[in-house]
Amino acid sequence: MDTASYKRLVHVIMALPGFLTAFMVSAVNIALPAIGKDLGMNAVMLNWVATAYLLGTAIFLLPIGRIADIYGRKKVFFLGLVLFTLTTGLIGLAPGAAVLISLRFMQGMAFSMLSGPAIAIITSIFPLQERGHALGINLATIYVGLTVGPFIGGVLTEHLGWRSIFFCAVPFGAILVYLTGRYLKGEWADSRDERLDYAGSFLYAVMLMLFVYGMSCVPSRTGMWLIGGSVLGLVAFVKWEQRTKNPVFDINLFMKNRLFVFSNIAAMIHYSATYALIFLLSLYLQYIRGLGPQAVGLIFMAYPVFMALLTPSAGRLSDRIEPRLIVSAGMALTALGVFVLIFLDERTSITTIVCTLVLMGIGYALFSSPNSNAVMSSVDKKHYGVASGILSTMRLTGQMMSMAAVLLLFSLFLGSRPIEPDTFGAFMKSMHITFVIFSILCGIGVFISLARGKVHEGESTAALAEEVGE
Question: Quick count: other Cβ atoms within 10 Å of Cβ 243?
Answer without folding.
Answer: 9
